[in-house]
Amino acid sequence: MSAAGGLNAAPGPVAMPLLRDDLRQIAAWIADGASVLDLGCGDGTLMAYLRDSRAARVYGVEISDDSVLACVRRGVSVIQADLESGLRMFPDRMFDTVVLSQTLQAMRQTEAVLREMARVGRQGIVSFPNFGHWKHLVSLIGGRMPVSPQMPYQWYDTPNVHLCTPKDFEILAARLGLAITGRALLSAGQPVALWPHLRAKLAVYRFEPK
Amino acid sequence: MQAGSVGVVTPQTMRFADPLALASGARLAGYELCYETYGTLNAARDNAVLVCHALNASHHVAGRNADRLDEVGWWDNMVGPGKPLDTRRFFVIGVNNLGSCFGSTGPMSVDASTGRPYGASFPVVTVEDWVNAQARLADRLGIERFAAVMGGSLGAMQALSWTIQYPQRIRHCVAIATTPRLSAQNIAFNEVARTAIRSDPDFHGGDYYARGVVPKRGLRVARMIGHITYLSDDDMAEKFGRSLRNADYAFGFGAEFEVESYLRYQGDKFSEYFDANTYLLITRALDYFDPARAFGGDLVRALAPARARFLLVSFTTDWRFAPARAREIVEALVVNGRQVVYAEIDAPHGHDAFLLDDARYHRLVSAYFDNVAGELAG
Fold first, then answer.
1. Are B335 and A80 within 8 A, CB to CB?
2. Which of A16, B41, B130, B135 fits a 20 to 30 Å CA distance from A193?
């Protein structure tokens, strides 16, 4: 198929600066013309961007009715399904890249989702808020669970059931036999050089099955 | 946006003199197709949308029938000015399929070679045959390529088949509440319905027209069975529960429960207007639909010729054509690299949901057709 050639125009141009910080890093790791599965694709921002700028062939998986509708309005392919069971429909190594953006921490079956990503994709990319950010530690020292722009929830209503730090993720990846091929620890969209484990707000990882 | 009706519509008839070769090997000598249109075909002739009907519906998709004003089209909540399939932007065609009983050539029509109604001799037709006949109608209407072909249930099977049979003639396939093939259970229900019809003493092997009788008892049972499969358990519980029509049990076999009364009413109504031979033919077309069959059951290969973009919708409580069946189609489309939107609407109404008002469902179809309209030249 003529990847982007036959695609609809998006309702409006998706400018790079409007992309969420982690999405910019994710896009940088996706090759032109790649086939991409975006898990928990939300309103389709990343998909529309990859379609328009990378000529990528993109499919999203999303559970929310409103997000599916938003994807339809953007003219991107979206499949309404629960991530934790919805990947079964895809054959092995179906996609060049499988993306899970800021959703890993809300998965119940974290290991199973990562394994599935490694099965259906040649590479996986995940991003998640860094629970080890210093402000979170300060909050904990003050006796309160952290609430931040990356994790704007109270402890009793948070969807984030599996929070972790970059190091935690790396340990799990190793245990699951995933080779990490890229890592970006970001704050305000910029890589953090000094004390990234404390100062990065977001972690973005790229991995491949070993 | 003010949603309205397409108003009063008059069905049209197109006569086809060339015989139609059928999947069975038989040929249908000459035939007529009854159809309705709504909206205006644009100068580029690229805004046509074909709406395909399911088991018991017809070409009368929207608006009110000119002869019987109380007859509102079967998908009137979907098709009209300001509705999800907006007739201010699209030229919509509804066509009655061959073998049906609402004006197109079917078992009730007179076979020119005998001068008598076809009856039992009307050839068994398939979804593919219907699509071929629809394509000829499109030729005659000067439509090279449909902006979309759309349908629910058996209608959606026709839309899917269009993408395989005429990949260059369909830009979008909108397939609601459908399946790539009937399950054994689906076929079993059809067979019970057909057995009810065939065992009605008034059926006479399908040649009941000359005898002036109608196998109403069989049709009634067939419709009752069908209705059970269209509704969900929850929906039935909600609508009827165990409600009685009178205060207490009558200790007999009358229609005491509301659900019995409902089924009897639906059965009676249906047996007044539907043709028994048509019921056999259309349920058979359902049974036979299985595009993957020619590819050893491989739906991916069956859908390989498709070039359309797809919208598929299923409903969570549809146990007749459950969401898992639609997901098989989605999977095959993704493997083939086709663009696809798949929505699973959480609705309580079972298979019938595709015909009912549901804001999420209609918003989605509406948004999809906005994109389709955006692509059109005119």
1. no
2. A16
Is the distance from CB of A50 to CB of A71 less than 8 angstroms?
no
Q: How far apart are CA B203 and CA A187, in angstroms?
A: 78
Judge contact between A39 and A100, C-beta under 8 A: yes
Closest chain B C-alpha to A145 CA, distance in angstroms = 35
pLDDT tens for residues B251-276?
A: 999 999 999 999 999 999 999 999 99
Query: Looking at CA atoms only, how far is residue B128 from chain A in angstroms?
Result: 25
Catalytic residue among B235, B318, B352, B358: B318
Catalytic residue among B46, B351, B358, B362: B351
Cα atoms found within 13 Å of the Cα of residue B301, Cβ hemisphere only: 7
Which of A2, A58, A77 should we substitute to test contact with B (largest number of B Cβ atoms within 10 Å)?
Answer: A77
How does pLDDT run along chain A (210 residues), one tens digit per residue? Answer: 333 333 333 333 333 445 678 888 999 999 999 999 999 999 999 999 999 999 999 999 999 999 999 999 999 999 999 987 778 889 999 999 999 998 899 999 999 999 999 999 999 999 999 999 999 999 999 999 999 988 899 999 999 999 999 999 999 999 999 999 999 999 988 999 999 999 999 999 999 998
Cα dist. A173→A31, A120, A124, A209 in Å? 23, 16, 11, 10
B-chain residues near A81 (CB < 8 A): 327, 342, 344
Q: How far is B375 from chain A (nearest CA, A)?
A: 7
The residues facing A207 across adjacent strands are A124, A180
Which residues fall within 8 angstroms of residue B110, CB to CB, at 6 or more apart? B116, B117, B118
From residue B215, alpha-carbon distances to A189, B57, B177, B219, B260 in Å are 73, 20, 30, 6, 21
* B318 is annotated as an active-site residue: yes
pTM of the full structure: 0.93
Q: How many CB atoms lie within 10 A of CB B227?
A: 17
Compare CB distances from A80 to B331, B338, B344 and report the shortest one's residue: B344
d(CA B69, CA B5) in angstroms, rounded, equals 13
A72–B337: do the CB atoms touch at under 8 Å? no
From the number of C-beta atoms within 10 Å of its C-beta (0-12, 13-18, 19+), residue B124 rates as middle
d(CA B221, CA B217): 6
Residue B204 is a catalytic residue: no
Give the whole-angstrom CA distance, residue B319 versus residue B113. 44
User: For residue B334, which residues of chain A lie inside 8 Å, CB to CB?
Assistant: 59, 77, 79, 89-90, 94
Indicate yes or no: CB of A69 within 8 angstroms of CB of B364. yes
> To probe the interface with B, which of A35, A79, A92, A93 has the most B CB atoms within 10 Å?
A79
Residues A20/A28, Cβ–Cβ less than 8 Å: no
Q: How is residue A90 annotated by DSSP?
A: S
Name the residue facing A94 among B335, B345, B374 (closest C-beta). Answer: B335
| Contact by Cβ (8 Å): B3, B10 | no
Q: Which residues fall within 8 angstroms of residue B362, CB to CB, at 6 or more apart?
A: B77, B78, B83, B84
The answer to whether residue A1 neighbours chain B at the CB level (below 8 Å) is yes
List beta partners, residue B132.
none
